[in-house]
Amino acid sequence: MPRTVLITGGTSGIGLATAARFAADGADVTVTGRRQETVERAAKELGVRGVVCDATETGQIEALAARLGDTLDTLDVLVNAAGGLPPAVTGDGSPLDAVRAQWETNWAQNLMTAVLTTTAVREKLAPGGTVISIGSIGAERGGGAYGAAKAALAAWNAFLSAELGPRGVTANVIASGYVENTNFFGDGMTRERHDALVAETHNKRAGRPEEIAETAFFLASPGARHITGQTIHVNGGAFTTR
Protein backbone atom coordinates (compact mmCIF):
# COMPACT_ATOMS: atom_id res chain seq x y z
CA MET A 1 0.00 0.00 0.00
CA PRO A 2 1.54 3.39 -0.96
CA ARG A 3 2.51 5.83 1.75
CA THR A 4 0.39 8.95 2.12
CA VAL A 5 2.34 12.21 2.08
CA LEU A 6 1.26 15.83 2.65
CA ILE A 7 3.66 18.62 1.66
CA THR A 8 2.79 22.22 2.40
CA GLY A 9 4.42 24.77 0.14
CA GLY A 10 4.85 21.96 -2.36
CA THR A 11 4.53 23.99 -5.54
CA SER A 12 8.10 25.27 -5.94
CA GLY A 13 11.67 24.95 -4.73
CA ILE A 14 12.34 22.53 -1.90
CA GLY A 15 8.68 21.61 -1.47
CA LEU A 16 8.25 20.73 -5.13
CA ALA A 17 11.47 18.69 -5.20
CA THR A 18 10.37 16.80 -2.10
CA ALA A 19 6.98 16.07 -3.61
CA ALA A 20 8.69 14.78 -6.75
CA ARG A 21 10.93 12.47 -4.69
CA PHE A 22 8.06 10.87 -2.81
CA ALA A 23 5.91 10.65 -5.95
CA ALA A 24 8.75 8.85 -7.74
CA ASP A 25 8.64 6.26 -4.95
CA GLY A 26 4.96 5.65 -5.64
CA ALA A 27 3.58 7.56 -2.67
CA ASP A 28 0.12 9.09 -2.61
CA VAL A 29 1.18 12.75 -2.45
CA THR A 30 -0.84 15.88 -1.73
CA VAL A 31 0.79 19.29 -2.23
CA THR A 32 -0.55 22.62 -1.05
CA GLY A 33 0.14 26.21 -2.03
CA ARG A 34 -1.48 29.60 -1.77
CA ARG A 35 -2.24 30.18 -5.45
CA GLN A 36 -4.55 28.15 -7.65
CA GLU A 37 -2.38 28.37 -10.75
CA THR A 38 0.81 27.14 -9.07
CA VAL A 39 -1.03 24.34 -7.29
CA GLU A 40 -2.59 23.15 -10.53
CA ARG A 41 0.73 23.34 -12.35
CA ALA A 42 2.61 21.36 -9.71
CA ALA A 43 -0.13 18.74 -9.42
CA LYS A 44 -0.19 18.23 -13.18
CA GLU A 45 3.61 18.14 -13.46
CA LEU A 46 4.02 15.50 -10.77
CA GLY A 47 0.76 13.59 -11.15
CA VAL A 48 -0.22 14.26 -7.53
CA ARG A 49 -3.17 15.77 -5.69
CA GLY A 50 -3.14 19.55 -5.26
CA VAL A 51 -5.06 21.65 -2.74
CA VAL A 52 -5.09 25.43 -2.45
CA CYS A 53 -4.33 26.29 1.18
CA ASP A 54 -2.68 29.28 2.80
CA ALA A 55 -1.08 27.63 5.83
CA THR A 56 -1.19 30.89 7.79
CA GLU A 57 -5.01 30.87 7.70
CA THR A 58 -6.70 28.65 10.28
CA GLY A 59 -9.93 28.32 8.29
CA GLN A 60 -8.09 27.09 5.21
CA ILE A 61 -6.06 24.61 7.27
CA GLU A 62 -9.22 23.27 8.87
CA ALA A 63 -10.74 22.84 5.40
CA LEU A 64 -7.60 21.01 4.27
CA ALA A 65 -7.75 18.66 7.25
CA ALA A 66 -11.42 17.96 6.59
CA ARG A 67 -10.71 17.24 2.94
CA LEU A 68 -7.90 14.87 3.84
CA GLY A 69 -10.20 13.21 6.33
CA ASP A 70 -12.58 12.39 3.50
CA THR A 71 -9.86 10.84 1.31
CA LEU A 72 -7.18 9.41 3.63
CA ASP A 73 -7.47 7.00 6.53
CA THR A 74 -4.00 7.81 7.82
CA LEU A 75 -1.10 10.12 7.02
CA ASP A 76 2.41 8.66 6.89
CA VAL A 77 4.54 11.72 6.13
CA LEU A 78 3.97 15.44 6.73
CA VAL A 79 6.52 17.86 5.28
CA ASN A 80 6.12 21.45 6.44
CA ALA A 81 7.82 23.31 3.59
CA ALA A 82 5.60 26.40 3.51
CA GLY A 83 7.40 29.60 4.44
CA GLY A 84 9.93 31.99 3.01
CA LEU A 85 11.42 35.43 3.33
CA PRO A 86 8.67 38.06 3.41
CA PRO A 87 9.28 41.39 1.65
CA ALA A 88 10.16 44.36 3.80
CA VAL A 89 7.16 46.05 5.35
CA THR A 90 6.41 49.56 4.10
CA GLY A 91 3.54 51.89 4.84
CA ASP A 92 2.37 54.93 6.74
CA GLY A 93 2.67 53.47 10.24
CA SER A 94 5.38 54.25 12.77
CA PRO A 95 8.80 52.56 12.64
CA LEU A 96 7.73 50.34 15.52
CA ASP A 97 4.60 49.33 13.64
CA ALA A 98 6.78 48.28 10.71
CA VAL A 99 9.08 46.22 12.95
CA ARG A 100 6.14 44.54 14.60
CA ALA A 101 4.52 43.73 11.25
CA GLN A 102 7.79 42.31 9.89
CA TRP A 103 8.25 40.02 12.88
CA GLU A 104 4.63 38.90 12.96
CA THR A 105 4.70 38.11 9.24
CA ASN A 106 7.85 36.04 9.63
CA TRP A 107 6.40 34.27 12.66
CA ALA A 108 3.20 33.45 10.77
CA GLN A 109 4.92 32.18 7.62
CA ASN A 110 7.89 30.33 9.08
CA LEU A 111 6.63 28.95 12.40
CA MET A 112 2.86 28.97 12.60
CA THR A 113 2.39 27.34 9.19
CA ALA A 114 4.09 24.24 10.58
CA VAL A 115 2.49 24.40 14.03
CA LEU A 116 -1.05 24.87 12.73
CA THR A 117 -0.84 22.30 9.95
CA THR A 118 0.71 19.67 12.19
CA THR A 119 -1.88 20.28 14.89
CA ALA A 120 -4.71 19.98 12.37
CA VAL A 121 -3.59 16.60 11.00
CA ARG A 122 -1.70 15.05 13.92
CA GLU A 123 -4.42 12.56 14.82
CA LYS A 124 -4.10 11.08 11.34
CA LEU A 125 -0.37 10.47 11.68
CA ALA A 126 0.19 6.73 11.56
CA PRO A 127 2.62 4.76 13.74
CA GLY A 128 5.89 4.70 11.85
CA GLY A 129 5.08 8.11 10.40
CA THR A 130 7.12 11.28 10.46
CA VAL A 131 6.87 15.06 10.56
CA ILE A 132 9.62 16.97 8.76
CA SER A 133 9.85 20.75 8.91
CA ILE A 134 12.12 22.85 6.70
CA GLY A 135 14.28 25.12 8.81
CA SER A 136 17.25 27.31 7.96
CA ILE A 137 20.87 28.05 8.71
CA GLY A 138 19.52 31.53 9.51
CA ALA A 139 18.28 30.21 12.86
CA GLU A 140 21.89 30.15 14.09
CA ARG A 141 23.59 32.97 12.24
CA GLY A 142 21.95 36.33 12.69
CA GLY A 143 18.86 35.77 10.60
CA GLY A 144 16.79 38.57 12.16
CA ALA A 145 13.03 38.00 12.30
CA TYR A 146 13.26 35.14 9.80
CA GLY A 147 16.05 33.43 11.73
CA ALA A 148 14.22 33.85 15.02
CA ALA A 149 11.14 32.18 13.56
CA LYS A 150 13.23 29.26 12.29
CA ALA A 151 14.95 28.96 15.69
CA ALA A 152 11.53 28.77 17.30
CA LEU A 153 10.60 26.08 14.74
CA ALA A 154 13.49 23.94 15.99
CA ALA A 155 12.50 24.46 19.62
CA TRP A 156 8.90 23.51 18.86
CA ASN A 157 10.09 20.45 16.94
CA ALA A 158 11.86 19.11 20.04
CA PHE A 159 8.61 19.48 21.97
CA LEU A 160 6.64 17.84 19.15
CA SER A 161 9.04 14.90 19.02
CA ALA A 162 8.51 14.22 22.73
CA GLU A 163 4.74 14.33 22.25
CA LEU A 164 4.61 12.10 19.17
CA GLY A 165 7.39 9.69 20.09
CA PRO A 166 5.24 7.35 22.20
CA ARG A 167 2.99 6.90 19.15
CA GLY A 168 5.94 5.81 17.01
CA VAL A 169 6.04 9.08 15.05
CA THR A 170 9.29 10.99 14.54
CA ALA A 171 9.73 14.75 14.14
CA ASN A 172 12.80 16.48 12.72
CA VAL A 173 13.92 19.75 11.17
CA ILE A 174 16.11 20.05 8.09
CA ALA A 175 18.10 23.29 8.39
CA SER A 176 19.15 24.15 4.87
CA GLY A 177 21.91 26.51 3.88
CA TYR A 178 21.94 28.43 0.62
CA VAL A 179 19.87 26.49 -1.92
CA GLU A 180 19.72 27.80 -5.47
CA ASN A 181 16.82 27.48 -7.91
CA THR A 182 14.19 28.50 -5.38
CA ASN A 183 12.04 31.62 -4.98
CA PHE A 184 13.50 32.39 -1.55
CA PHE A 185 15.52 35.49 -2.43
CA GLY A 186 13.15 36.77 -5.10
CA ASP A 187 14.94 39.51 -7.02
CA GLY A 188 17.45 39.99 -4.20
CA MET A 189 20.04 37.44 -5.35
CA THR A 190 23.00 39.06 -7.03
CA ARG A 191 26.11 37.41 -8.43
CA GLU A 192 28.12 38.90 -5.57
CA ARG A 193 25.75 37.52 -2.94
CA HIS A 194 25.69 34.12 -4.62
CA ASP A 195 29.48 33.98 -4.70
CA ALA A 196 29.76 35.03 -1.05
CA LEU A 197 27.33 32.31 0.10
CA VAL A 198 29.08 29.68 -1.97
CA ALA A 199 32.47 30.77 -0.60
CA GLU A 200 31.28 29.95 2.94
CA THR A 201 30.74 26.29 2.09
CA HIS A 202 33.41 23.61 2.28
CA ASN A 203 32.49 22.10 -1.07
CA LYS A 204 32.27 25.50 -2.80
CA ARG A 205 28.85 25.20 -4.35
CA ALA A 206 25.23 26.03 -3.63
CA GLY A 207 22.82 23.39 -2.44
CA ARG A 208 20.10 21.99 -4.67
CA PRO A 209 16.43 21.45 -3.81
CA GLU A 210 16.81 17.77 -4.69
CA GLU A 211 19.42 17.36 -1.93
CA ILE A 212 17.02 18.62 0.72
CA ALA A 213 14.37 16.34 -0.77
CA GLU A 214 16.66 13.32 -0.46
CA THR A 215 17.32 14.19 3.19
CA ALA A 216 13.57 14.37 3.83
CA PHE A 217 13.09 11.04 2.05
CA PHE A 218 15.74 9.45 4.26
CA LEU A 219 14.19 10.84 7.46
CA ALA A 220 10.93 9.21 6.43
CA SER A 221 12.61 5.86 5.77
CA PRO A 222 12.80 2.77 8.01
CA GLY A 223 16.52 3.43 8.52
CA ALA A 224 15.81 6.72 10.30
CA ARG A 225 13.32 5.53 12.91
CA HIS A 226 15.64 6.36 15.83
CA ILE A 227 16.33 9.89 14.58
CA THR A 228 13.85 12.27 16.18
CA GLY A 229 13.82 15.65 17.86
CA GLN A 230 16.81 16.68 15.77
CA THR A 231 17.86 19.53 13.52
CA ILE A 232 19.76 18.12 10.53
CA HIS A 233 22.06 20.67 8.88
CA VAL A 234 22.38 20.43 5.10
CA ASN A 235 24.59 23.35 4.12
CA GLY A 236 27.78 22.10 2.47
CA GLY A 237 29.78 22.81 5.62
CA ALA A 238 28.89 26.50 5.72
CA PHE A 239 29.64 28.10 9.07
CA THR A 240 26.63 27.98 11.36
CA THR A 241 27.70 30.91 13.53
CA ARG A 242 28.86 34.39 12.68
Automatic annotation (TrEMBL):
InterPro entries associated with the record: NAD(P)-bd_dom_sf (IPR036291), Sc_DH/Rdtase_CS (IPR020904), SDR_fam (IPR002347)
Matching entries from SUPFAM superfamilies are given as: NAD(P)-binding Rossmann-fold domains (SSF51735)
Instruction: Please list every transmembrane segment annotated in the UniProt record, as residue ranges.
Output: none
| Source organism, top-level taxon | Bacteria
Looking up PANTHER family in the UniProt record yields: DEHYDROGENASE/REDUCTASE (SDR FAMILY) MEMBER 4, DEHYDROGENASE_REDUCTASE 4
Give the family, as the similarity comment puts it: Belongs to the short-chain dehydrogenases/reductases (SDR) family.
**What's the protein here called?**
Short-chain dehydrogenase/reductase SDR
Q: Which organism is it from?
A: Streptomyces sparsogenes DSM 40356
Q: What is the lineage of its organism?
A: Bacteria, Bacillati, Actinomycetota, Actinomycetes, Kitasatosporales
